[in-house]
Amino acid sequence: MSAGGVCHIAQLDVSQLEDIDRAYEEVGPVDILVNNAGFGVFDLVEDASIEEMVSMFEVNVFGLIACTKKVIPEMKQRGQGHIINIASQAGKIATPKSAIYSASKHAVLGFSNSLRMELADSGIHVTTVNPGPIATDFFTIADRSGEYVKNVDFMMLSADKVAGKVVSAMMTKKREINLPGWMNAGSKLYQLFPFLFEKAARKAMMKK
């Protein structure tokens, strides 16, 4: 933040439209929107509760869409803006025990890619950020057994590193940020050879 800048903090639940409206009235207009709210629960589909499934989509997808819709009109009026949607490598590589979370992040990527084309002539840029596992409290809810964190601890990203990449991309035309880079190579292999990838990686991915 530059010297003399002011930071406004507004608490809200992105699954509640009235909260989004109130927060926008408090801090708007918005030049750069970072849609970062989200959570996951790692469970087999047959064991997951419908309530948790619905809640994941309300926060990860519909909350993100609602926040985005709120800022677009004024960004268009100004002829500039940046929407940064935090997706996940899980949106590119579906894994066992995260079917609903992966589905929600697939939705974020699909929404963002379509929105980018819709806003191409408006001066508003759309960036997606697809990180692998990040060392945050996310896993307190997502990984109740603690097994997943044990298995991926060696590849955990620091929150500061991810945040730094996001800040560096602000007000640029960067389409996508993938972290770590080698994991993005894995997602490309998955797209090219899904059967082989799933067969080879299934057992390892079940360890959540």
Automatic annotation (TrEMBL):
InterPro entries: NAD(P)-bd_dom_sf, Sc_DH/Rdtase_CS, SDR_fam. GO terms for cellular component: membrane. Keywords: Oxidoreductase. PROSITE patterns: ADH_SHORT (PS00061). It comes from the Bacteria. GO terms for molecular function: oxidoreductase activity. Belongs to the short-chain dehydrogenases/reductases (SDR) family. This is Putative oxidoreductase YqjQ.
